[in-house]
Design a protein that fits this description.
single chain; alpha/beta; Rossmann fold; 6 helices; 5 strands; globular
């Protein structure tokens, strides 16, 4: 039986930490769908289209991984794709409470959903999209924190 997991996020932008989690998930599951949330309430730095394009560029050499945008509830989107395993990344203890709440909320919406929490490697544990955005807003060099494949997107923002 082929197992597919969904890895949702805003990916604003996709980071080396995200790629780390995707590769870890790929070792556990046959396929991984990277689901890019519109997340307009978060006021993303990059458009949804650009975030999808960045994610596609970043995962192009990882077989069994594809990218799709979504703008509805994750539980509904996953169900529409017949995917019942959600991957979430945990960098630090501070992530756990929020992620636990989200996991329980998704389960309350769809009892077939299981959430699997993965940790990035130690070298990627401090990386977040918000750290990268902050560095970019202050004209700093964050290129060591995101995949090389998205450099052109970052340099030509928004």
């Amino acid at each position: 039986m082929i197992k597919t997991a969904i890895y949702p996020g805003t990916f604003d932008p996709i980071t080396n930490g995200h790629i780390d989690i995707i590769k870890r998930a790929k070792r556990l599951f046959d396929n991984v769908l990277v689901a890019v949330a519109s997340s307009e309430e978060k006021k993303p730095m990059f458009s949804l289209e650009k975030r999808v394009n960045m994610a596609q560029a970043a995962i192009k050499n990882i077989s069994g991984v594809k990218v799709e945008p979504f703008s509805n509830l994750l539980a509904d989107f996953a169900k529409s794709k017949n995917i019942y395993i959600i991957i979430r990344g945990l960098r630090a203890v501070s992530d756990f409470e929020y992620e636990l709440q989200i996991g329980y909320a998704n389960y309350s919406l769809n009892k077939d959903i299981e959430t699997v929490y993965l940790m990035p490697s130690l070298k990627n544990a401090f990386i977040s999209s918000s750290v990268i955005r902050s560095i970019l807003r202050h004209s700093g060099d964050a290129s060591h924190l995101y995949p090389e494949e998205i450099s052109d997107f970052i340099e030509g923002r928004p």
